[in-house]
């Protein structure tokens, strides 16, 4: 979903963020993206907070500038 250069995207987390909390990662500062929600396998999406730890098998919903989201989503 995109409007005026702002997007919301659902994706698998890039390898470099797996195993860390959102506070440790500072994704807003490093990439300009915000993690809004996270879904663990076989669970519903839940709101993310600073203590949320991202795992390899999670799905995340992120928001931010469209170009920055694309860059983040294409990280290995």
Structure, explained:
- Strands 1-2-5-3-4 form a five-stranded antiparallel sheet.
- The chain is of the alpha+beta class and 76 residues long.
- Strand 3 (33-39) and strand 4 form a beta hairpin.
- It is globular and about 35 Å long.
- 22% of the residues lie in helices and 32% in strands.
- It has helices at residues 22-25, 27-31, 66-73; strands spanning 2-3, 6-11, 33-39, 46-47, 59-65.
State the separation between the terminal residues, measured CA to CA.
Answer: 22 Å
- Compute the number of helices: 3
| Mean of all residue-level pLDDT scores | 94
Major sheet strand order = 1-2-5-3-4
Number of strands: 5
Structural class: alpha+beta
Please tell me what the overall shape is: globular
In CATH, the topology is named Alpha-Beta Plaits
Rg on CA atoms, Å: 11 Å
CATH second-level architecture: 2-Layer Sandwich
- What is the H/E order? EEHHEEEH
At the first level of CATH, the class is Alpha Beta
| Count of discrete domains | 1
Largest sheet features: 5 strands, antiparallel
Helix and strand arrangement:
Blueprint: E1 2-3, E2 6-11, H1 22-25, H2 27-31, E3 33-39, E4 46-47, E5 59-65, H3 66-73
Antiparallel strand pairs: 1-2, 2-5, 3-4, 3-5
Tell me briefly what this model is.
By secondary structure, the chain is of the alpha+beta class. It contains 3 helices and 5 strands, in the order ββααβββα. It is 22% helix and 32% strand.
């Amino acid at each position: 979903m995109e409007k005026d250069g702002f997007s919301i995207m659902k994706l698998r987390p890039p390898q470099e963020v797996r195993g860390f909390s959102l506070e440790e990662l500072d994704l807003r500062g490093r990439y300009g993206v915000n993690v809004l929600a996270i879904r663990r396998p076989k669970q519903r999406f839940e709101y993310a907070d600073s203590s949320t730890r991202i795992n390899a098998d999670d799905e995340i919903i992120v928001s931010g500038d469209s170009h920055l989201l694309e860059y983040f989503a294409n990280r290995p």
